[in-house]
Amino acid sequence: MNLLPSGICFYLSVAICWLTSRVDGSWWYMGTLGSQVMCDNIPGLINKQRQLCRQHPKVMQAIGAGIKDWIGECQHQFQNHRWNCNTMARDHNLFGRLLLRSSREAAFVYAISSAGVVHTLTRACSQGELQSCSCDPTKKGSSRDAKGTFDWGGCSDHVEHAMRFSQSFIDAKERKERDARALMNLHNNRAGRKAVKRFMSLECKCHGVSGSCSVRTCWLALADFRRTGDHLRRRYNGAVQVAMNQYGTGFTTAQRHFKRPSKNDLVYFEDSPDYCIRDQESGSVGTGGRVCNRTSRAVDSCEVMCCGRGYDTTRVSRTTKCECKFHWCCAVHCRDCNQEMDVHTCKAQT
């Protein structure tokens, strides 16, 4: 069974770097012809994606502008681990050859990027940045929750619209391939989209005499993307290793005692490398030069992070604010203090 994708999907390929370099929006004002020319030259798109790109250039611009948010969230979630969601500035895609391996890290990247696209487009719709969408038009009239009746008002975030567009655009290449890796990507893409919707919350404003809340006006709002990132990180920890079923139409667990994956789980085929040393084939950049915590016993410890190679210690001086005092009414004055501290970094492989 070939588990390598015949082509990394658009938003993880050189196309995403291409979009990121053009998020200033200058070329989107070239008109319909300009949009068509640029969409035709984005690498990695299939015909359906090019068509959607031509029809919705502002949406493409919003996706490009939001890329840094989900990459930043990925790097936050793994900042103290051997694999820290590092990106490659000069590779054929943002994560190098890492994504050619059907590992749980690849599963997380697909899920967090799919979630990031949904979150970005939902927010852009509510903020009036796109002509193709706005607030959720279905949230009208009255409804009920555990606290009683309320009136829909304000601007409910239209997450369903963002999910539909994201699915149509992002999943297009995977649906065309339909091999084992494509099915894995589709599953993790969907898990990412569902994670954003999972944390939509009902926010309300009370009306009535003396704040009695006799009438409530409510709307559905996106949660901070950190909640989605935290959720997907937990799913990464509990990701299910799977194999293709005998019909090639779905998954079965790789081991009998493993749980059957739900639609919210992340799935992967291959074991991960240890990420200790630089290995171009696996996409590992190694941990040489990474900062570690000498006193920790967790994954950020020098013992774990440096994979037994040892670490170097450097004495550095850092300036911090100290002896801060509050002055009436509205000022805080601090001194600049120099602090000497040791920084430990993993030795490179020999």
From TrEMBL:
Coiled coil: none
Keywords per UniProt: Developmental protein, Disulfide bond, Extracellular matrix, Glycoprotein, Lipoprotein, Secreted, Signal, Wnt signaling pathway
One annotated GO biological process: animal organ development
GO MF terms held by the record: cytokine activity; frizzled binding
Pfam families cross-referenced by the UniProt entry: wnt
Protein localization: Secreted, Extracellular space, Extracellular matrix
Superkingdom as given in the UniProt entry: Eukaryota
Signal sequence segment: 1-25
InterPro entries reported for this sequence: Wnt, Wnt2, Wnt_C, Wnt_CS
GO cellular component terms, semicolon-separated: extracellular space
Its job: Ligand for members of the frizzled family of seven transmembrane receptors.
Family stated for the protein in its record: Belongs to the Wnt family.
PANTHER family: PROTEIN WNT-2 (PTHR12027:SF86), WNT RELATED (PTHR12027)
Protein's name according to its UniProt entry: Protein Wnt
Gene: WNT2
